[in-house]
Amino acid sequence: MTHWLIAPILIPLLGGILQVFMGYAPISLRRTLAIATTVLMLVSAVVLLTLASDDSYRIYAFGNWQPPFGIVLVLDRLAALMLVLTAVLGLFCHIYASGGADEGNRQFHALFLFQLMGLNIAFLTGDLFNLFVAFEVLLIASYGLLMHGGGTTRTVPGLHYVVLNLAGSALFLISVGIIYSVTGTLNMADLAVKIPQVTGSNLNLVKAGGMMLLVVFGLKAAILPLCFWLPKAYAKATAPVAALFAIMTKVGIYAIVRIYPLIFGEGAGELAHLGMDWLFPLALITLSMGVIGALGADSLKTLVAWQVIISVGTLLAPIALGSVAGLSAALFYLVSTTWTVAALFLVSELVANQRGTASDNIVTAPKMRHRTFLSVLFLIGAVAAAGLPPLSGFFGKLLILQSVEPGVEMAWLWGVLLVGSFLTLIAYSRAGSIVFWRNVDGHLETPEPMNNRVSISTGILTCLTMLIVVLAGPVSDYTRATAEQLHDSRGYINILQTPVHIPQNPLVGETN
Amino acid sequence: MELLFALVIGALTASGVYLLLRARTFPVIMGLTLLSYGVNLFLFATGRLATGQQPVIGTAASYSDPLPQALVLTAIVIGFAMTAFLVVLALRNLADNENDHVDGQREKPSPPSKHEQEVSSK
Questions:
Q1: pLDDT, tens digit, for every residue of A294-303?
Q2: 8 A C-beta contact, residue A74 and residue A124
Q3: pTM for the full model?
């Protein structure tokens, strides 16, 4: 049992607690410590990635309880990939935030670190109820972050976001309760053993529980009927927060990828592939809805927020089909799209700061400062998001297209994805040409100066898409191995047999 | 006991959902609170309803499952914190928009009542 597994949770927890008590310390000290915490978290995530790439499962059993008793953390390739994805994203958002966005709220860094902690718990946990707790931890931090910053425009979207997620939590608890009442366990590996044995009238109970779980994850991931809270909430949030929230919808997708192939996978008898036949059409409609929203967006941030929904649809379609190649392609695209969308949120905010009252609205305005720098960043982000060669979005979408086997699904997926990408391209070109090219005479009243931290973090996050292209071979090898590991649920079930650490002297408690 | 318990959960959930769909933040908060009561009772019932039994395996022939009780405790704590936050958020909504509507809409100015007209004419 290696203790590294707890590091990505403990580091932001301790760093966050430190920040809570340092609310009145000088801001430079707070920033330095907060960013140092995020860097440490990234280091621990990379260590876990190297640990996980030997295809084995590692567990961390709290209190040395042999699973399925007690709560376990489980590290596999998928968890490690998500940890690194989050840590890299968190680091650049954090550096951006320290460029000035963190002023005005003494607890910004604490909330930010707690948010990262909640995400890491969600990715590492091997227990269904613990997943619920992780969701609540990351949600309550996200409520605070969403309301961060001045202005009254955030109150109403924030209220909607909180109420919706509270209703979602209630549903989550109900479905966990139903599943527990039938199986008597909440450990994911144990559930994978117990659920195929369910028979008779209990079968329908488990089916209801599983479908309700899918609704909850759909709410987090913003699948179509549950996605209308997202554009307003994300477009109104401060840029680094909106960029960090790019990973929040992916948590819902992660939960679907983690739970459904494992618990309701091929070995689940009558419950095999539960809900997946619903997920595929919903994913395609979500994608279309996102494209329509992007075409109608009136500001850059709203455009990017709809891009989040487009990417959710694009990701879930191959996941719902359930092939190894599809899952691998989806994971590749997940890495690419998360960083790209986050970078676009940051670029939108930089553009908004340089345009005075026109802000990030897609209207003609006087020429902005730093136009070349910002327009190049926007171009890179837009090309990666729309999926044009040579950037990583293209490779992600290509892998997704290749992964479908010929048939009705292929026709639907190819049609919707290709037309959708083309229309996304139109939305971005329209937005970019109006914002950057069509200028009117006049001058802006004192645009906000751009500092190094802001511009460098945005620049690097945008250019990560090129890094993915350069490293496309290793990354796609990794995602393919991840998909194979996920597809074979026996490995995960075997963690029940993993012996946990046994005390050297078992009599120590009796020598009282 | 099962029937009574089920009816209570049903009533709580139904009233909770009804209130959740109201247009003012106060009923919405009350609705979420009632809903979480219903959910907590439901979670409690997943360990099967039994009285006078010990919560630890091995000390009696039949036992009452302690895990749902632990789950309910966690859910209560989380629900309490969330409700507190939601109340503060609703108050801020009231302060920002001078209105308790969930969409923050200002109410259309209603024509002054007769009494007010009389007061202003004097």
A1: 999 999 999 9
A2: yes
A3: 0.91
